[in-house]
Amino acid sequence: MNSDADGKLVSALVRGISILQCFNNKRQELSGKELMDLTGLPKPTLFRLTETLCELGLLRYSERLSKYVPGVALLNLASPVLARMTMRQFARTQMEELANYMGGQIQLNVGSGRELVLVELAKGIEDKLFAPEIGVGISLSRTATGRAYLLALPQAQRESYLTDLAARDAERATQLRARLDDARRDLAEHGFCRSHGDLHREIQSIAVPLSKPQDGEYWVFAASVPSYNPKSGHMETDIGPRLITLVRSVEAVLGGTGV
After folding, report:
1. pLDDT by residue for the chain (259 residues), tens digit each?
2. Largest Cα–Cα separation, the chain
3. Is 27 helix (H, G, I), strand (E, B) or coil?
4. pTM of the model
5. CA 101 to CA 73: how far, in whole Å?
6. 22 and 38 in contact (C-beta within 8 Å)?
7. Short-list 154, 174, 155, 158, CA closest to 166
């Protein structure tokens, strides 16, 4: 069994997963050359791994596109992950009610380490916002949700992320530290973080993290409305308190179920 230098990771498995991680909601089809560039793998190694992934149904080569696309077997892997997240069932009705009241979206996100993803979405009847797909990654630095998540993490993990970000983009890391200071004050004073339009200027968002992690995973609820929505002017005074009430209600259910 081949492993990496420190003997903890199986290199072939890491390389195979690195291929799958090249795909996301913006990169849904990739050529062999594109996969080589993204992974840094030599052509023979990449060929063997893509062949294996295709045999397992985790990857598929589209003759029509002359490119690789994610295989349907990935859905089988994702299904039990979503099924075990019972919080989605507990929160869904309240999320839908609030989404309808505000004419926007309520999102439920879960994170571990440096990964934060959307796992449940409620759209109001009059919501006009683009609806992201379940499983899409959430920016840690440019969203209210991401900053709420970072503040929920243990300080050592948060500082590690900021240090690595500074090595890649010092300006962005400095901006994030300032935004985290704002978010920390918002949480202390209001109980939620604000988006400040960092990612989408035309959308107003707030985010509320659960008070504590659930089995090592950190959860964040978020509410979003377009700036032209009349409710956008009442995010702090109306929507924020309602979102906090939703989160506390879910926490009460979780405490009663022992989840």
Report:
1. 344 445 678 899 999 999 999 998 889 999 999 999 999 999 999 999 999 999 999 999 999 999 999 999 998 888 888 888 888 988 999 999 999 999 999 999 999 999 999 999 999 988 888 888 888 999 999 999 999 999 999 999 999 999 999 999 999 999 999 999 999 999 999 999 998 877 777 889 999 999 999 989 999 999 999 988 888 889 999 999 999 999 999 999 887 554 5
2. 60
3. coil
4. 0.83
5. 38
6. yes
7. 174
